[in-house]
Please model this.
Amino acid sequence: MTGIFPDPILRLPEADIPIKGVKAYLSQGEDHQILFMQFSEDVDLPEHAHEDQWGVVFKGKIELEIDGVRNVYGKGDRYFIPKGVRHSGKIYAGYADMTYFGQKDRYKAK
Model:
């Protein structure tokens, strides 16, 4: 394995995410999605809200402001954003994570 993700993840469908510089692989459940994401460019995330989100950082750094509280997460850190809570952030080039979304239709496969 030379990259961050092993072959079984790389064989998952690629997610159609309208963010420049992201490559994501989608594992689809009946009531949720799990994405394995990696970023080649810095990305600013505007404030938004959706269903529950839980992430585990594999590599790099992400800054998140969740319900008015700003934190920086790095390799090995976890974050949780409850359903409906407003959040925004910045993802830095080189970042990779696994993110759970508590909704089945957040993203579609390409």
About this structure: The first strand starts at residue 15 and ends at 16.
